[in-house]
Amino acid sequence: MNEWLYSLRWSLPYIPCPGERELGQVTVQAGECCPASLLAQWVPGSGYAIFIDFMTLKPARPWSDERKAATRRRNLERRINRVAPLFAEELTERELAARPDYFTGK
Q1: Which residues lie below 8 Å from residue 37, measured CB to CB, with a gap of 6+?
Q2: CA geometry: angle 35, 36, 37, nearest 5 deg
Q3: In the list 7, 14, 17, 91, which could disulfide-bond 25, CB 3.0-4.6 Å?
Q4: What is the pLDDT at residue 31?
């Protein structure tokens, strides 16, 4: 089940924090409002703000070898075309020959 994390944190990046950077935090079920205990600590204009972080339980999915290979080749072509568009084909072939495993997604 998803959870949300409400916290009262210092929110002015160019002004040094006068005390604790985080005054409190509360974890609630997704969709619930900010708890009254945290709202009671907040003072408008004090430099602190209420933040919400969405805690997800989904694990990161690994990329398939085909997707990695396609992305690596596309990035290679982009880099080479930006630096040396006249010799792009030749330089791309050299790089693919020099590191075949990398560009097949291994």
Answers
A1: 24, 26
A2: 90
A3: 7
A4: 85
Class of residue 6 by CB neighbours under 10 A (exposed 0-12, middle 13-18, buried 19+):
buried
pTM of this structure: 0.54
What is the residue extent of each domain of the chain? 3-55, 65-104
pLDDT for 79-106, tens place per residue? 999 998 998 999 999 998 999 888 888 8
pLDDT value of residue 90 = 92
> Average pLDDT for residues 23-49, to the nearest whole number?
90
For the chain, what is the HEC assignment?
A: CCEEEEEEEECCCCCCCCCCCEEEEEEEECCCCCCHHHHHHCCCCCCEEEEEEEECCCCCCCCCHHHHHHHHHHHHHHHHHHHCHHHHHHHHHHHHHHCCCHHHCC
